[in-house]
From TrEMBL:
Keywords: Aminopeptidase, Hydrolase, Metal-binding, Protease. It comes from Mesobacillus boroniphilus JCM 21738. Gene3D superfamilies: Zn peptidases. This is Glutamyl aminopeptidase. SUPFAM superfamilies: Aminopeptidase/glucanase lid domain, Zn-dependent exopeptidases. GO terms for molecular function: aminopeptidase activity; metal ion binding. Pfam families: Peptidase_M42. The keyword Hydrolase applies. It comes from the Bacteria.
Length: 276
């Protein structure tokens, strides 16, 4: 049995009995986060969620020596198993880590969309590390690049499972225009830039507030202050082994981002900064 440490905001109740892969130098090793059958638990333990520190991964090894022979070492990455799966409604897609494979994919597509265009700015598009454990890569990138403005590309929790159409974060209702979260109040100038672009081009969007945070929370306080915003979509069941997004939301986010980048000339950036 293998003990493990989670990275980021994993909730203990979504982990038990999940299939995982341990990424070793010999290739991925499949395991399962062990779950004790309720028949073997007393009433007190059945009614109390198991803490992550007490969970173990079973890879089928007979003992420690066997696990070492298989290739298990301390510090290796462990990832959930969840195949990319279109749902019955094929506009909805189930997969692991939409938070933040969405952002990685969109950053790549932005480069593809603009590679043959003479932009009125210098574009940096990429992925940062360790967002979930302290926004660390974003701070390094901001210090290195010192951008004039910044867009974080991130997925946020959908809150539409109850059927309440007034809740923030509805699948299929467009990209998210984030007003504030626990790490940032969105800069007024860049917020208005995004809103005007979406309204002008009839790009579907929805307002959003969050108790979480994104890389923008660290970047907007970097250097002398950087106007920052989030180009996001909502995803059901984030921070679990299986999450769901809507392709129309992704398309809206992509269209909006590309148009914003194409329009961000020197005058526009100066206008954004002056509207604080």
């Amino acid at each position: 049995m293998i003990r493990f440490q989670t990275l980021g905001g994993w909730w203990s109740q979504v982990l038990l009995a999940q299939r995982v892969q341990i990424i070793t130098n010999n290739g991925p090793v499949t395991g399962v986060i062990g779950s004790i059958p309720p028949h073997l638990l007393d009433e007190a333990k059945r009614n109390k969620p198991m803490e992550i520190k007490n969970m173990l991964i079973d890879i089928g090894a007979d003992n420690k020596e066997d696990a070492i022979k298989i290739g298990i070492k301390p510090g290796q990455q462990i990832v959930p198993i969840c195949p990319f799966t279109p749902m019955a409604n094929e506009k909805k897609i189930l997969a692991k880590a939409w938070d933040n494979r969405y952002g990685c994919g969109l950053a790549i597509e932005l480069l593809k969309e603009t590679k043959d265009i003479q932009l009125p700015n210098m574009l940096y598009s990429g992925a940062t590390v360790q967002e979930e454990v302290g926004l660390r890569g974003a701070q390094t990138a901001a210090n290195m690049i010192d951008p004039d403005i910044f867009f974080a590309l991130d997925a946020s929790p959908a809150n539409d499972m109850s059927g309440d159409k007034n809740e923030f974060g509805q699948l299929g209702k467009g990209t998210l225009l984030r007003i504030l979260d626990r790490s940032m109040v969105t800069h007024r100038g860049i917020r208005e830039f995004i809103l005007d672009m979406a309204e002008t081009h009839n790009i579907p969007y929805q307002y959003f507030v969050s108790q979480g945070g994104t890389d923008a929370g660290r970047v907007h306080t970097s250097n002398q202050g950087i106007p920052s915003a989030v180009i996001g979509i909502c995803s059901r069941y984030i921070h679990t082994a299986a999450s769901m997004i809507h392709v129309d939301d992704y398309a809206a986010a992509k269209e909006l981002l590309v148009k914003l980048v194409k329009a961000a000339d020197k005058t526009t950036v100066e206008t954004i900064k002056s509207n604080s």
